[in-house]
Amino acid sequence: MKTRLIPGILLGACAAGCVAERPKELVDAHATYNRVAAGPTATVNPSGLADAKAELDRADKSYEDHKYMQNRDTDFTRDEGYIAMRKAQLAEAEANAMLASREKARLDRDLQAALLRQQAKPAVKADDAAQRLGNMGPVRQDERGTILTLAGSIVFATGQYKLRNESLPKLNQIAVALKDLNGRTFLVEGYTDSTGSDATNLQLSKKRASAVREYLIRQGVPADQIKAKGNGKDRPVASNDTPEGRAENRRVEIIVQPRPS
Amino acid sequence: MCKALMTAIAIVTLGACASVRPVSPERLRASEQAVQNATSTGADRDPDGAKYLATARSQLAEGKKLSGSGEPARAEKVLERAEVDARLASAVARENASKADLKQTAEMLKQLQ
Prior knowledge:
The complex is a heterodimer of chains A (about 260) and B (about 110).
Chain A (H helix, E strand, L loop, with lengths): L1 H13 L9 H14 L3 H4 L1 H21 L8 H46 L8 H6 L4 E4 L2 E7 H4 L12 H13 L5 E6 L6 H21 L7 E5 L12 H7 L1 E6 L5
Parallel strand pairs in A: 3-4
Antiparallel strand pairs in A: 1-2, 2-5, 3-5
Helix pairs in contact in A: 2-4, 2-5, 4-5, 8-9
Chain B lengths: L1 H18 L5 H16 L6 H22 L3 H41 L1
């Protein structure tokens, strides 16, 4: 890089204007590539990084081949520099997504272990639904009853409605708590974020709610006391404009309905 | 004489056709596909993804325009820019979603410990 610049600078000094300046896109591409290559992308996503390098070499060659031409069209070098920079960013984003998924898989294992430990503790006898369920996650009350929220990403894999093994210890605990609440009725509601079509979301949320209901029935919750419903993207609990908000909206709610008065 | 004239006309016509040759269908398809993929996976819902996807869409339109106005070589490059922007939009949206899922799991674990 430096050795290439030196003759360029010298020539520029000798005959100002004869050597085309390195376009900004190419300079940016080098800076981005160097930054990405120095980070974890090099080990996590070497093939993505190699793609970016090949593109960067192509852009450099395009610049070297044309820099002495008078009135040359610099568009191609600019395009290649731009594409090289984007490929470096792409490699980095892919690497970061992979790292986050790996870390999540690790935490899922810890979570499963923590839930198993909690399950081993003797259950606290209490009639109050809020108190019993409150030990298992965020609980709130509204006119529908006492609501326990389960994060969609923990119960299901993205876009699927089969229960993840990691969620089973928690659902077992919930089943024990619900069975103790004699004479109460329960409603499992599925929700999605606002991404994708309404029809798909509604369908997915229904299937997810039914999967949870069926599992709880298999654990001994009486089938006539528990219903399932899909609500799609309705009743968001957070903004759908941020990834964090959308993750919060992808959820299953287990509602302990108020006693009939 | 007449034959020579006809040949000349044919060459000129062919030359004119060559200059308005559109970009390769593969190039166009790859760029359109990348934009479509990013759109259908909801990259628009992510603020960073939306930014790159908007650029990808405008470059796709620009590339098609250049292709129609007889600049296939330049059009190919602009379409390639559209493709990498769209792929970056998808990747960045995925990156942010994975990070959000991770954060949620970490919080849940913290609650339990």
